[in-house]
Amino acid sequence: MRHYPMIRIDKQLLDQVSEKAKKAPRRRMNHNFHQSPEDLLNRMLNAMEPDTYVRPHKHENPDKREAFILLRGSFLIVEFDEKGNVTDHVILSKEKGVYGLEVPPRTFHTLISLEPGSVIYELKDGPYIVQTDKIFAPWAPEEGAADCQAYNQRLLQQLQVNA
Questions:
Q1: Residue 61 scores a pLDDT above 90
Q2: What is the rounded distance in angstroms from the CA atom of residue 89 to the CA atom of residue 20?
């Protein structure tokens, strides 16, 4: 039986991943803890800067749950119906006393980082297969499109969230 060392999640690691996110073209960075994409539970840090864009998506066929636990900063997480209407939202924030949530399978959702250096611990059913992992919302801009930031800003205004 192979022995794996204990995984520590500390300020130094959060700082390292956040620094990589700040320098990354997508303005976000994962730090995976799972050994391979085939693991049945994918676990990672996800550092995001406020100007990143996560295209709304859902996980189905196969169905996958996705959980987020706040480690630093704050995030807006939004759920949508099939037509792109907001059905629910929550702000993960120490000040608000909300530290995590789980998005059920087959639910369109997105995340918006609300402050620099924000980091979540993300857990998602595996395995990770890039071709089937996400179904992107057809009503939201593609990542890299000119109107991604405007889309995020409209959501923030609609939900009256200050970033």
A1: no
A2: 28
Structure tokens, 17 = 């991943």
Confidence label for 66 from pLDDT (cuts 50, 70 and 90): very high
Distance of CA 68 to the CA centre of its chain: 7
| Pairing label, strands 100-103, 66-72 | antiparallel
Measured CA to CA, the distance from residue 90 to residue 79 in angstroms comes to 9
pTM given for the model:
0.92
Q: Are 92 and 75 in contact (CB under 8 A)?
A: yes
**Three-class DSSP category at 114:** coil
Distances (CA, A) of 123 to 54, 65, 127, 149: 16, 8, 12, 26
Distance, in Å, from the CA atom of 25 to the CA atom of 100, rounded to the nearest integer, reads 27
Q: Using an 8 Å Cβ cutoff, are 28 and 46 in contact?
A: yes
In the predicted model, what is the mean pLDDT of residues 97-103?
97
3-state secondary structure at position 46: strand
Contact in structure between 133 and 55 (CB atoms under 8 Å):
no
∠ CA 27-142-36, nearest 5°, is 60
